[in-house]
């Protein structure tokens, strides 16, 4: 994933999930990563979040410490790599 925010710092984060098809959890958070001054993490719902397919979100990792009414503008790309069938690899953003 590549990420750009308002003042345009950029970064890259890779999250490899072993045995994805065997996950039993409803939701899963990545480790926290930093781009510029901001802390982020990826949130996934392997079986969907009110949907029948993978749901994936970019999440502000420290939102509980931020003041009321805060906001962040981020532009990001996501790439999902299928290690078994490269034809099913996807990139969005």
What does this structure look like?
There is one protein chain. This protein has 93 residues and is mostly beta strands. It contains no helices and eight strands. It has strands spanning 2-5, 10-12, 28-29, 33-35, 38-45, 55-60, 74-80, 90-92. The strands form two sheets. It has a four-stranded antiparallel beta sheet, with no helix packed on it. Strands 3, 4, 5 and 6 form a four-stranded antiparallel beta sheet that branches. Strand 4 (33-35) and strand 5 form a beta hairpin. The termini are close together.
Biggest sheet record: 4 strands, antiparallel
- Please count the beta strands (DSSP E, at least 2 residues each): 8
Q: What structural class should be given to the helix and strand makeup?
A: mainly beta
> So how many helices?
0
